[in-house]
Specification:
The complex is a heterodimer of chains A (278) and B (363).
Chain A: H1 8-36, H2 40-43, H3 59-66, H4 68-101, H5 107-119, H6 122-135, H7 142-165, H8 170-178, H9 183-194, H10 196-212, H11 215-219, H12 228-233, H13 243-274
Helix pairs in contact in A: 1-13, 3-13, 4-7, 4-10, 5-7, 7-10, 10-13
Chain B: E1 4-13, E2 16-26, E3 31-35, H1 42-50, E4 57-62, E5 65-66, E6 77-80, H2 92-102, H3 107-121, H4 136-148, E7 154-158, H5 166-183, E8 187-191, H6 194-200, E9 203-208, E10 211-216, H7 218-223, H8 228-233, E11 240-249, E12 252-257, E13 261-263, E14 279-284, E15 289-292, E16 301-309, E17 314-321, E18 324-331, E19 341-346, E20 352-355
Parallel strand pairs in B: 3-8, 3-9, 6-7, 7-8
Antiparallel strand pairs in B: 1-2, 1-4, 4-5, 9-10, 11-12, 11-14, 12-13, 14-20, 15-19, 16-17, 16-19, 17-18
Helix pairs in contact in B: 2-3, 2-4, 3-4
The chains are: A mainly alpha (278), B alpha+beta (363).
Chain lengths: 278, 363
């Protein structure tokens, strides 16, 4: 990559702009971090700015990490998010590939159907999904939760993936066909690697949506499966709100997403550097 | 290598008839060219032969065996795409090896074959590169290599030279022809470029609007075009086309155009009887018009130089006779200024005459 030399004044302006935007976006998160290191008593009646902790204690983290319902919910959430992401990426990829590159009767209908289903508000699907899962004896199970999240995510992700896979030239797929490559192999060995930039973006989007979900987590999961977000919310449900512990739990729950975002960043850069997509 | 027979193929896209009852045979080792403007149905025919597109009607036979129901990979054909369709995330070596790997050829043999092919095409030095790091001509060679590496029964080339710049195109034209002869490869190739078709093919099928108008040798297509479309599409500069009327008078036969009248009595037996008074289309190739400063013969026609293009080694002179525009090829030494009066003499033995209504050849 070529860096142009910028004049000092231009650089200063650029960095100030970046800082302003970053400050705006990150301030709630920073406040959360600060709060997570505070003692409960010191928090009361204290203005949020500047972001400076009066005390710096790990009590909140110690408490959360030793609080078993939290770690169980963390693992359950992770399981659901990973399963959902896998299911959405595989099923979504196959559907998107078919609509983008195969010609069959009803293709346009299917495409429109995907878009219409996406436009339905999630709330409208909530009750039917709960009823369905109950009939299938999947209510309050990890698999049931995965299906609920997948139903929510699949239409939108398929729609995105259609746009991404359409960028792979039809000629290349026909060349693969001539060379005796099956369609499923073409998809997984050629189309997805060629579209990895978009693919990973969709993957992270799916993971984050599932991880952050509260609505389905609160209705599909009841006793057996308690996901992370409703568990964190419980800190608010008693007689008093446990702000500092809730902040620590929130920061901990953001770690997988942050980690994934860092991995994604590397993937995007690698994709651009290899120049695979012209 | 093998033969390819296309028998009464038709294909509709929506309401548009892309291929209209097309039949032709390609013999073993022959280079057959589908020549026509874009949208004529050339690519569709190649794709139908390859199996990428099912025909609505008709049969495809390879080595005498009907392959309509076979998947593309089971037809043992190789196709080269106009865009080359190289796999962008594979190196040149892997691009060449890929068709063999798909067919489960042992690794050692793949290595041997790929290096042979790379040698033939002069791309050995490029084997470790990615397609994005190649020039247009290099990509074209790799695409060619990927087609020949499997030694298929026939090659289908879809406008293989169109994406190259002009100079490279001429080089690759010759190389492709040489390679095709060396391999003795049965080849069907689609192009909109009449010069490519004339120089490379054993046989040309002229296509327009989904139909084959003429299936002939390059000489046949050039010397004896069967209709006005073929006559004007093949040859550069294009054949002069003039509306005329056939008149029989005093035992003589005349072709009357807006600008001049030609006595074609000598060719009388060639023009069918009873055509007197009928409308016709006269075709004269520019190289069959001789220009002189003075009247060279009794049937020379007076004209005015409209403009001259000195293309070298000759010049194309645009002429105006009455309201009719014509083109003639003249040696560079023939000096002519704009507006200058010259005489043109048409080689009567070389004229073409078409029926105005059917556009089919009369002579």
């Amino acid at each position: 990559m070529a860096y142009r030399k910028r004049s000092l004044s231009r650089r200063i302006v650029l960095y100030v702009c970046v800082l302003v935007v970053l400050g705006f976006v990150l301030s709630p998160y920073l406040l959360g971090i600060v709060t997570s290191f505070e003692r409960e008593a010191e928090l009361v009646g204290r203005p949020p700015f500047p972001f400076k902790a009066i005390s710096l204690v790990l009590d909140n983290y110690m408490y959360i990490l030793s609080y078993e319902p939290f770690s169980l919910a963390f693992l359950d959430s992770l399981m659901v998010a990973v399963l959902t992401t896998c299911f959405v990426m595989i099923a979504g990829s196959m559907g998107a590939f078919a609509i983008a590159h195969l010609r069959f009767r009803g293709r346009n209908f299917l495409f429109n159907f995907v878009v219409v289903v996406y436009m339905l508000p999630a709330l409208a699907m909530l009750i039917p999904i709960v009823v369905l899962l109950k009939e299938l004896a999947l209510l309050d199970t990890i698999v049931g939760m995965m299906f609920a999240h997948s139903i929510l995510l699949l239409p939108l992700m398929t729609w995105f993936l259609i746009g991404i896979y359409e960028n792979v030239p039809a000629d290349i797929l026909e060349a693969l066909q001539m060379d005796g490559t099956s369609r499923i192999r073409s998809l997984f060995r050629e189309v997805i690697p060629l579209s990895r930039f978009g693919f990973f973006l969709i993957l992270v989007f799916s993971f984050v949506t599932s991880w952050n979900d509260l609505m389905f987590a609160n209705t599909v999961g009841i006793v057996q499966v308690k996901l992370l977000q409703p568990r964190i919310l419980e800190f608010m449900s008693g007689a008093r709100v446990l702000y500092t512990q809730m902040a620590a739990a929130g920061i901990l729950s953001s770690l997988p997403v942050v980690a994934l975002a860092i991995v994604l960043q590397k993937q995007i850069i690698a994709g651009i550097m290899k120049g695979a997509i012209k | 290598m093998g033969t390819v027979q296309v028998d009464s193929i038709s294909k509709k896209f929506g309401h548009r008839l892309a291929v209209d009852n097309v039949s032709f045979d390609v013999r073993d080792g022959e280079l057959m060219c589908l020549l026509g403007p874009s949208g004529a149905g050339k690519s569709t025919i190649l794709r139908i032969i390859a199996g990428l597109e099912p025909p609505d009607a008709g049969t495809i036979r390879i080595d005498g065996k009907t392959v309509n129901d076979l998947a593309p990979k089971d037809r043992d054909l190789a196709m080269m795409f106009q865009s080359y369709a190289l796999y962008p995330n594979k190196t040149v070596y892997d691009n060449l090896a890929f068709p063999l790997k798909s067919y489960k050829v042992p690794e050692a043999e793949i290595k041997k074959t790929v290096s042979e092919v790379a040698n033939t095409l002069g791309i050995t030095a490029l084997l470790r590169r990615l397609p994005a790091q190649l020039s247009g001509g290099e990509r074209q060679r790799v695409a060619m290599g990927r087609a020949i590496v499997r030694k298929p029964k026939a090659f289908l080339l879809d406008e293989p030279l169109t994406n190259l710049d002009a100079k490279l195109r001429v080089n690759m034209r010759a190389e492709l022809k040489r390679l095709q002869r060396e391999l003795g490869a049965t080849t069907i190739f689609a192009t909109p470029d009449q010069l490519e078709a004339l120089t490379m093919s054993d046989r040309i099928a002229i296509m327009n609007q989904g139909m084959i108008l003429q299936d002939d040798t390059p000489d046949g297509v050039y010397e004896h075009p069967k209709d006005v479309f073929t006559a004007t599409f093949v040859g550069s500069p294009a054949m002069n086309i003039l509306d005329c009327e056939i008149e029989q008078k005093n035992g003589k036969i005349f072709l009357n155009t807006e600008a001049f009248s030609l006595d074609v009595s000598k060719l009388g037996d060639l023009i069918a009887k009873g055509t007197s008074g009928s409308e016709a289309v006269l075709g004269v190739r520019p190289e069959h018009v001789t220009l002189t400063r003075d009247r060279a013969a009794t049937d020379s026609i007076a004209a005015e130089v409209y403009v001259s293009e000195r293309t070298r080694p000759e010049q194309i002179v645009h002429l105006k006779a009455g309201r009719t525009m014509m083109q003639a090829i003249a040696p560079l030494a023939f000096q002519c200024q704009l507006g200058q009066k010259v005489w043109m003499t048409i080689d009567l033995a070389k004229i073409h005459l078409f029926d105005k209504r059917t556009q089919k050849a009369i002579v």
